[in-house]
Each structure stands twice: as structure tokens, then as C-alpha cells.
Design goal:
- The chain is an alpha/beta fold.
- The protein has two domains: 143 residues, NAD(P)-binding Rossmann-like Domain (Rossmann fold), CATH 3.40.50; 180 residues, Dihydrodipicolinate Reductase, domain 2 (2-Layer Sandwich).
- The N and C termini lie far apart (43 Å).
């Protein structure tokens, strides 16, 4: 058995609960430090999760001086991710960072460069890559069940209202950034994950519902159109003021069939006359305890142990973030924006 990897958790919001539970589940990791602006809150987290020997901090600089920390798991508000990720990488720690990893191109580039220069492993919590429906879709695509893709759409529809603890800061541009960055990036990343093609151009529309009832400082609804190098077209609709239960609809069209969530129709399946429905776990909830953090963190530990790069590293998901940032430029400039964005 390898000696356990020490983990530090930055932040004590809802998503940090998912990270802690995943790290506690893994036999080769131990949570040894918690960071919060409020020491009493950090200490309460330690007690709530039964983290024996875990220390509470209010200063990241002090936390990074602690011996025995191998991984820093960043669960703080969006605007802090890049700065904290850079500090963690420069201290020689492997980095887990919640999405979005940055709210602007400069910070995105700085974080990517810091991780490369430190030669540490990284993973971004586009955790739906480990959702069973996603794994099923990837398996069907690998078997060419629906042939070559020519169109795909993945949407993120989730009303972020005052009932949710993150609402007060997410609704502000300085902290939320845009509908795509704060939430719809999950859908953008899913489309990339299924397409396995490089995005070359983005065009975006956005609006606010009449009267702006939720007081968002940016347009909380957007539609991004994406062109891929292989000829595939894509669409990502995002609404964080949607008046409906959370939904994450997926549609992929190929020259041999179509996938719509867990329904499949394929010319390859002789005699098929209607949709085949495959029972599986869908990405149908925004709740943290519904997200597959356990397999994500197990994958990351394996990457650290073997020295492999994760398929969901910062370097890979820079491309997801560039699509979101290009969509913002498209809105400002009212034109299509070419990818990749300039260095």
C-alpha cells in the first residue's frame, strides 16, 4: 500500500462537501487541512466530517507551509481559482480546481503556465465526464454506433435563484463572469468530450428575461454556436434563470443514428423501429451529492501515482474555457470569434 496523499481543501461551501467525501472514500488519501475566511467555520467542517488530525487555516500562505500536503483541492468562489491554483502549483502541490478555473484569458494562461512549469498534475472538476450516461455515450461513439458526428447540442438549464447559497455572488459579473463561465461551461466541456474535435469558431447570443427579476449583472441566458475542425456544428444553450427543474439535455446526430440523452436510434441495429432506451444514471440534478466526485478523484490519484496527465487537466480544459471566453467576445463585438484565442 502506498503512503496516503495529504489533501488540503480550500473553501467550505457546498461543493467542498463533495470533495471531502470523495477524498475520505479513497484508501490512499487523507484530508489534512481546511481553508476558510472564518476559522470557526473551518473548524466546524473538520468536526462535521470527522477529520482527525486535520488543521484549520484562514491563510493560504500558512496552509502551504504545512508538511505532508500533496494535493490542493480548490472549492472557493470562481474569481479565486486561478490565483490559488498558481500558488498551489508553485508550492509543488498537485491541483484540483473547480470550474471555471479563470474568468479571463490572462488568468487562464497564467494558471496553465504555472502548472506546466511546476510539472505537477492537475484536474478540473468537469465531473460529469465520470457520469454513467457520459461513459455510455462515449462507449457508443467509440463503437461507431451512430457513425460520424455532424451536429451536437448540450444545454445547461438551471435556475440559480436566491434560494441557493451561491446566488449572492454568482449573480455579480466580477464573481460569476457569464452564464457560460459560471455554469454552462459544463455543457461546453461535454460537447468537446463527445465531439473529440477542435473548436475553430464561436458565435453567441445572450439576453435577460423581461424585468431581470433575479438582478443578474450579466445576461443569464445565452446560446453559443460552435464550429469544429472536422465539420461538426454544435450548440450550447445556457440559462441560469430558467423557471423549471434542472435539466442537462444532450443530442448527438451522426450519419448512422442519433443519441438523445439515454435514447439511441441506429442504422447499425438491424430492425430497429423506435428509440432504444438504456437505463443509466442521468446528469439530471445540480446537487453536489449527485456528482461523481469519487471516480474523478480516484482517476486523479492514479494519474499522480503513475505520472500520467489527466484527460481533464487544466491544459486540456483551457480549450473549454477558451470557447466560453470567445462567446463573451462574440457578444461584445457582435461577430464570430476564431479559435484558439491569441496568446
Amino acid at each position: 500500500m502506498n503512503p496516503p496523499l495529504g489533501v488540503a481543501i480550500l473553501g467550505t461551501g457546498d461543493v467542498s462537501n463533495g470533495h471531502i467525501r470523495a477524498w475520505k472514500t479513497h484508501p490512499e488519501t487523507e484530508v489534512r487541512a481546511i481553508l476558510s475566511r472564518d476559522r470557526a467555520r473551518a473548524e466546524a467542517f473538520v468536526r462535521t466530517h470527522g477529520l482527525e488530525g486535520c488543521r484549520a487555516y484562514t491563510s493560504l500562505d500558512e496552509l502551504l507551509k504545512q508538511d505532508g500536503l500533496d494535493i490542493v483541492s480548490i472549492c472557493t468562489p470562481h474569481h479565486l481559482h486561478a490565483e490559488q491554483g498558481i500558488a498551489a502549483a508553485q508550492s509543488g502541490r498537485h491541483v484540483v480546481v473547480e470550474k471555471p478555473v479563470a474568468l479571463n484569458l490572462e488568468d487562464l494562461r497564467k494558471l496553465d503556465r504555472a502548472i506546466r512549469e511546476a510539472n505537477v498534475r492537475s484536474i478540473v472538476s468537469f465531473v460529469l465526464r465520470w457520469n454513467p450516461l457520459f461513459e455510455m455515450i462515449r462507449a457508443l461513439l467509440a463503437k461507431n454506433t451512430i457513425g460520424e458526428l455532424f451536429y451536437g447540442e448540450v444545454d445547461y438549464l438551471h435556475g440559480i435563484t436566491p434560494a441557493l447559497p451561491l446566488y449572492p455572488w454568482v449573480r455579480q459579473r466580477a464573481y460569476g463572469g457569464s452564464a457560460l463561465l459560471t455554469a454552462g461551461c459544463h455543457a461546453v466541456d461535454a460537447l468537446r468530450w463527445f465531439a473529440q474535435q477542435e473548436a475553430t469558431e464561436v458565435f453567441c447570443y445572450a439576453n435577460t428575461s423581461p424585468g431581470n427579476p433575479l438582478n443578474y449583472e450579466y445576461e443569464p441566458n445565452s446560446v453559443a454556436l460552435i464550429q469544429f475542425a472536422g465539420g461538426m456544428m454544435g450548440k450550447v444553450a445556457t440559462s441560469i434563470e430558467s423557471v423549471a427543474p434542472y435539466t442537462f439535455p444532450i443530442a448527438l446526430m451522426g450519419n448512422q443514428g442519433t443519441i438523445r440523452n439515454n435514447r439511441v436510434f441506429s442504422r447499425q441495429w438491424t430492425g430497429q423501429t423506435n428509440w432504444a432506451t438504456i437505463p443509466t444514471i442521468l446528469p439530471d440534478s445540480g446537487a453536489v451529492d449527485h456528482h461523481p466526485f469519487v471516480p474523478q478523484m480516484a482517476h486523479f490519484v492514479e494519474c499522480i501515482r503513475t505520472g500520467a496527465e489527466s484527460h481533464c487537466s487544466v491544459a486540456d480544459t483551457v480549450k473549454t474555457h477558451e470557447i466560453c471566453l470567445a462567446a463573451g467576445l462574440s457578444l461584445e463585438q457582435r461577430r464570430p470569434v476564431r479559435l484558439p484565442l491569441p496568446m
